[in-house]
Amino acid sequence: MKFFNKIIFSFLLVFLFNISFSNAEGIYVNNNKIQNTTPILIQNDKAFISVGDLSVAVGGSISWNKNEKIATVKTDDLKIEFMNGSNTVKLNDSKVSIELKSVLKDGKLMVPATVLRDFFNLKISWNYKTKNFLINSDEKSIVNTIKFSQKNDTAKLEKSIGPDSEKFSFTYALTDDAKNEKYLADGKYFIFKAGEKGNITKGLNGYFYMNVYTFDVYYYPLDAANDGSGIKKYSNGKEISDFNKNGRNTIHSLIATTHMINDIKESDNSLANFVYTRKDNINKEYLNHIPKATYYYYQASKKENNILKPQFEIAQNASTLDVYIFLKKENGVNIVQLPDKLIKTINMNKKN
Predict the structure, then answer these.
(1) Which of 103, 194, 251, 260 has the fewest Cβ atoms surrounding its Cβ within 10 A?
(2) Order of all β-strands in the sheet with 217-221
(3) Are strands 32-33 and 275-279 parallel, antiparallel or unpaired?
(4) Are 244 and 213 in the same domain?
(5) How far are the Cα atoms of 2, 84, 104, 337 from residue 18, in angstroms, in the given order?
């Protein structure tokens, strides 16, 4: 009887699975978990991925025509238009049929996940036990929290750049998210400071941004401007001469970060060994002692016994790019303004 009940229970599980929706726990690309995703949709044993997450997974850009309900994903090689309720897509200049119709759910266009396999030649799988959706990933190797590895990730950087990597020496600077940038695809990046080998006088040349999902690499020289002069993209060991741009607002946020790191290094070379990460806010009391403005905030940490320990906080004026370092001391804080190296001492127990 127990065996018979077990068969019935198994049948019900399969039946329910095939007629209902089931959300995935995580989406992984090259073993790294994509952050802030729209859950994978499982309908009748078929997986659907949001076009936004598909774009991140392939290192592309995305646009949405809300009137016609058409989403367009572009990469260096492909342009794909998905229409709600249709299983016909426009692939570059040709119309192609896909396995299932796209569906609009909770305001997000969901498309058959098999397009990752059919159009981008990526290996995909769905683990019904863990509810993880894997893209070029192995369940045993996936990571939820992305951490930089000096040996492995520097090697990936050099491999993606190819022969040009021999011109530079690389130092890991920080991990940061790029969103709505003008040139970089949305995603998470390892950022490396780059100095030209054998050129001591020139020092820091710029920054290399490696996408942790696709391993595509973008080079931003220190003097990069909104017109994109000097910005390069590398993939699979070669430079992409005419690469797809994200086409969004600006490069200001990333350039601000690179200037911040450079200013700090120039003020005290020992601070170049710290790890800098973005923050949503810092101690509000600090902000009472610097000019009112829009700021980017950072946390500076130092590795001790393989653990990152916070050391000090930073505010950077989004307009002037002036940097304020807040160094705690007994009963107060020293505020160091860069690049002028102006120092202001604040007693936190007294009102100014």
Answers:
(1) 103
(2) 168-178, 187-196, 204-211, 217-221, 232-235, 238-239
(3) unpaired
(4) yes
(5) 25, 22, 19, 61
**Which pLDDT tens digit goes with each residue over 124-163?**
998 888 889 999 999 999 999 898 988 899 999 999 999 9
Instruction: Read off the pLDDT of residues 84-133 as tens digits, 9 standing for 90 and up.
Output: 999 999 999 999 999 899 999 999 999 999 999 999 999 999 888 888 99
197 shares a domain with 130:
no
pLDDT at 253 over 60: yes
Q: What are phi and psi of 182, to 5 degrees?
A: -75, -35
Question: DSSP of 66-117, one letter per residue?
Answer: TTTTEEEEE-SS-EEEEETT-SEEEETTEEEE-SS--EEETTEEEEETHHHH
Nearest Cα to Cα of residue 185 among 152, 151, 138, 233: 233
Q: List b or e across 286-321, with b for residues whose CB sees 16 or more CB atoms inside 10 angstroms.
A: bbeebeeeebbbbbbbeeeeeeeeeebbbbbbeeeb
Output the CA–CA distances (angstroms, integers) from residue 247 to 57, 95, 175, 178, 250, in the order listed: 18, 25, 22, 13, 8
Quick check: helix, strand or coil at residue 211?
Answer: strand
> Which single residue is written with the structure tokens 């601000």?
256
C-beta of residue 163 within 8 angstroms of C-beta of residue 173: no
Mean pLDDT lowest among 27-36, 139-148, 208-217, 263-272: 263-272
* Residue 311 covered by a domain: yes
Count of domains observed in the chain: 3
Q: Within a domain: residue 164?
A: yes
Nearest in space to 231 (alpha carbons), one of 206, 214, 194: 206
Q: Is the peptide bond before 163 cis (omega within 30 degrees of 0)?
A: no
pTM of the model: 0.74
Distance CA 33, CA 137 (A): 10
Q: Is there a domain that residue 286 lies in? A: yes
